[in-house]
Amino acid sequence: MKKSSLQAWIAMLALALVWASLSSSGQTPGTGAISGSVSDPANKIVARAEVLAVNEATHLSRTVTTTAAGLFEVPLLLPGSYILTVKAPGFAPSISNSIQVTASETTSINVKLALASVGQNVRVSARAEDAELESSTLGGLVDESAISTLPLSSRNYTQILGLSPGVVADLPTATVLGNGTQNVASNGATPTANNIQFNGIDANNLQENSAASVSNFEVGTAIPAPDTIEEFRVQTANFDAAYGRGTGANVDLVSKSGTNAFHGSGWEFVRNNVF
Hints:
275 residues
């Protein structure tokens, strides 16, 4: 084998190994995952079972199979509510509704299949929120309900970044120039140590590596209106290498996505001396 061909083969092998390691253990910003195990009534593993995850809003689906150890993981899922269907020969299908997937987290679910009989299905209509078992990441999630109902003096989501444990910020004020962007500090780190991503894309102020602002005509990304944000997660410690560089807070924002049903909304923000 020629030296150039050998070097190319080694480079391709290295890239494949890196991709495999990222796919199996890393998170992609702005997405979540569902993982768990499948067993039978005797608590024995069920290998090669088919696991189907369907987004309830968009009906987009993804199918995986359990490993020889009865484990599965459905990665790269957009935040939302999912239906999980598990099928295996000789067992009744198991359907779990309303499985919540959030940004940067893996939702764990253990499925126990029942023996099949004529026309039998096992349907789980509701599930309690499980503790995070797949990661040691610390932080908090702010969902659409909190974003839309909490008071924002200038409709700037950064004013509620301080809701997460270990994160501190100044009191927001509507009298400052611009839209009152808040640069928070996490666990003693400086605001310039934060890392902010919107749908997985860098959204930092390029001058200070902090939240974008228009108060001083800084170069950065515009602050999205709260009506466009589905949720955001503030990770304060132990986040994986997919988020990189920041030693402070990692802010992962996700915008609202469409659904299969026709829908729309409108908003208007007016502030003047009349009000």
